[in-house]
Amino acid sequence: MAGVLKKGHAIAGLVVGAILLLTGLIIIILSAVMSGKADVGAILGPWWAGVLFMIPGILGVVAGITKNRCSMIAFLVLNIIILIAQSIVTALMGLVVAILAAFKEVSQDCTKSGPTTCKCNHNGTTFTMNGIEDCELIGDIYSLGFGVLMMMIIAVIACFAGSIIGCVAVCCNGNNTTAGTTVIIQQGNGQQQQGQPPAYNQPEQVKY
Question: Where in the sequence is the domain holding 71, given as residue range(s)?
């Protein structure tokens, strides 16, 4: 049947879906912890990115369990869309983590200058980090941000793999029904009927 996935494709979709669910959940948890330590923005605390990764993850698990071709098609489409969007978000997150790494290197030179402000002076360069209550938390925020970045990279790779698996599964299952060929053999008139003597040819009469 064209509506049922092959076992191998269903298992592959189930595995990729489970990876997306797991990485999405970890992203949400790490983002929530960061938000508790500092007033982070949408990029630094991208809990919504975890939710987006979990949507195709759920479809992958459903397609793997039910072997439903429609679920696999939806899994394929969402993986392609989220792969494009989240690749951009992951690149932005990489820039943020790089900035946090720079702050982490000079965190010992930072002092609290306000309720949620850290002022850092390193080698004559002064810069300020807002939204953080304790300057000693900069290292923790960097570690959490780095963890989110790693999970996002893994999830993007899983989306890429899911789009390939979905394409292969949909295309292969679309062609697994082939029209049968019917062969009709017609017997000639020379078949003998039961109980009748064999037919013989009458000799032609010769006229003199």
Answer: 7-174
